[in-house]
Amino acid sequence: MPTPKVKFNETAAKGEILEIKTMIDHDMESGQRKDKDGKLIPRKIVNKFICTLNGKELFHAEMHGAVSANPATNFFITATESGTMEFKWFDDDGSVYAISRQLTVN
Amino acid sequence: MKTSLIALAALFVALAGSAAQADPPFDPKDPKMAPYISGDKRSGYTFAEPETRAMQDDEFLNPASLWVEKGEALWTKPDGKANRSCSSCHGKAEDNMKGVGSVYPKYDIHAGTVINLEQRINMCREKHMAATPWKYESEPLLAMTTFVKMQSRGMPVQVQIDGPAVSYFENGRRFYYERRGMNDLACKHCHEDNWGNHVRTELLSQGMTNGFPTYRLKWQKLGSLHRRLAGCNEEIRAEPYPLGSREYVDLELYLAWRAQGLQVETPSVRK
Amino acid sequence: MGTSLPRAVLALALTVAVVGAADAAQRKKPADPSIWEPTRRAPLTEVKGDPVRGRVIVIKKGSCLTCHVMPIPEEADHGDIGPPLATVGSRYTPAELRMRVVDPKVLNPDTIMPSFYKSTLNRVAKGLEGTTFLEAQEVEDVVAYLSTLK
Amino acid sequence: MSQDVNSDLSRRGVLLGMGAGAAALALMPSVAHATREEANDAFAKLTGGAKPQAGKVTLKLPEIAENGNTVPFTVVVDNPMTEANYVKAIHVMAEGNPAPGVVSYFLQPTGKAEVYGRMRLAKTQDVRAVAVLSDGSAWEGKKEVKVTIGGCGG
Questions:
Q1: What homologous superfamily does CATH list for D36-147?
Q2: pLDDT at residue A76 above 90?
Q3: Quaternary structure (chain B) (predicted)?
Q4: Is position B246 annotated in a ligand binding site?
Q5: Is the Cβ–Cβ distance between D142 and D96 less than 8 Å?
Q6: Which of B115, B124, B219 to mutate to test the interface with D (most CBs of D within 10 A)?
Q7: Is B248 one of the annotated active-site residues of the chain?
Q8: Tell me: the pLDDT tens digits for B61-108?
């Protein structure tokens, strides 16, 4: 079971630009590799990642088979309001891996 | 005169097909490189591209951190019939595992042989936790090995090669210098005689082991030294030995001695 | 050098191809063991080496570019472990080239260069035991190609 | 406790001998590579038809990717991130891969227009990034990445 992780400055000054670092362990099976018998291994990747603050989207990514295993996605936001940051990764098999953090803006 | 020589050289290169690429920048006098050099020994870090070094240096972005966190969680998780965790006996890893990873492989009096850190962890599981040993190269064993070894980060590799370890060490040394496989190569042909040269574009390193387990860009995974050794053997079309085999543990001891004095870098990131 | 010898070699090569790797150990040795003589200078087969085929073998099966810079501009990134081979054909006769390809350890026991026609190697991967890096005719083709590099 | 896991992946490379580009083969075997036209078409779909202009977009990638399986990259767009004028999307494409699309990022008017990720590259090629702004215009940056041909271990 993949276990995502995120890191950012959880207590920030209003207007501060925060770098949000994220990573999740996942094989990102591209769908283009063959097994020992020459058969294509079916694609199984995390195809989407989304970050929200208090339910409002801040950022999302749509990934394809060319994203490396254990995808890392870093981006920036401006600290404007306190609240719950939610991070979700969507697997081809329907699984959703989620993690959340509190952001405090002073 | 000089320019015509250069032109001639350029022409030669063009005619001869392109030669190997520019190497990653490395200045032995750069203070930032000091932790990765000991005498004439150079960690694989010094042979890596700057972007690979940066990936290792960033504690969050180093992808091996995903395994480190799993190892940290396992450290305090009771397991086996004894319902004990690592921390039941050893307390805080940060305090009590310091200097443990830098001295393996090591002769173990209870095992009556030289064992590596993976085997030591499994011995603990069997003897003290009454738990089943983890499979070699399994996620929990890699995670725990990495978590324990990284407690020695920055400490020099320091293995014992005398006393009861002598015959194992000699065995490992023999392996290092013995040709094998269809390509008929010994470890030493690439990593002792030709480090700094290129096979196609690939820059050969000194084959130092102080960063293992390592996150390999190629594997897109954390992996053990033994997996790397087996991979090396396969590349030269030699029959690899099983992971955890006597042969590879002995070679691991010899390689650790070659890396003696370099700092433990676990978990490193390598190509 | 009798003509029966190269035939035996060809037969052997065919046997290798047909029987495959599984029972490599049981394969018959060639009739004349001198074919395996590392200092052998005579051609390994009676079919004259083909430099065009040799060039392909140099790039693909022989993996020569792993270590040598060669006048093969369509392939990028030649290695620099061994000497450049752009003029190797003017430095050595075909016989001398053959010896170096068959088993360079005759000249330098410590060389990193593989022995391309030696079947008694240590701990070869399962399925490849008893076989050689290149087949006899392939060695001849490579030698023919190298001889053109002047 | 012994076990051979060193895998299926490298076997094929091994049989081809040293220096056969084992990594690329293992990653994306025998699939036709995308063409520049396919990449252009794919970009056109993503940009809603706007023709990307050169500029604003900087792709930071290694000069030499040590292994094509994991190539770190950063895209920086020189543009504000205000409600009135911001970067709505950044599309990353590797036209020498079997399928050109790598990843698309969708941004809001917050922070700054910079993203980091890691991608797989089948071979030496141009990597392209197109930024679509809130005014509908599209901007492109490009960088050639040399993917190492491995000798031992790709």
A1: SoxY domain (2.60.40.2470)
A2: yes
A3: Heterodimer of SoxA and SoxX.
A4: no
A5: no
A6: B219
A7: no
A8: 999 999 999 999 999 999 999 999 999 999 999 999 999 999 999 999
**Could you give the C-alpha distances from A45 to A2, A41, A63, in angstroms and in order?**
12, 12, 8
Q: What are residue B180's DSSP bridge partners? A: B185
In sequence order, what E strands does chain B have?
Answer: 37-38, 41-42, 106-108, 113-115, 198-199, 202-203, 214-216, 221-223, 268-270
What distance in Å separates the CA atoms of residue B264 and residue B154, rounded to the nearest whole number? 5
Give pLDDT, residue D42.
78
Q: Does D143 touch chain B (CB under 8 A)?
A: no
Count other Cβ atoms within 10 Å, centred on residue B43.
24
- The answer to whether the beta carbons of residues D27 and D88 sit under 8 Å apart is no
For residue B40, the tally of other CB atoms under 10 A from its CB is 7
What 3-state DSSP class applies to B123?
helix
Question: Which numeric CATH code is attached to A3-84+93-105?
Answer: 2.60.40.10
**pTM for the whole structure:** 0.87
Note the ipTM here. 0.86
Residue C88 confidence (pLDDT) above 60: yes
Domain boundaries, chain D: 1-30, 36-147
Write the CATH number of the domain with boundaries B38-269: 1.10.760.10
Which residues of B fall within a CB distance of 8 Å from D146?
Answer: 21, 201
Q: Which of A21, A23, A74 sits opposite B63 (nearest CB)?
A: A23
Longest dimension (CA), chain D: 62
CB within 8 Å of C75: residues ≥ 6 apart: B17, C59, C65
Q: For residue A87, what pLDDT is reported?
A: 98
Q: Where are the domains of chain B?
A: 38-269
B232 assigned binding-site residue: yes
Assess D17–B contact: CB distance below 8 Å, yes or no.
yes
Q: CA-based Rg of chain B, rounded to a whole angstrom?
A: 20
CA distance B32 to B50: 12
Q: Which of residues 69-88 of A touch B (CB under 8 A)?
A: 69-70, 72, 74
Cβ distance B143 to B74 under 8 Å? yes
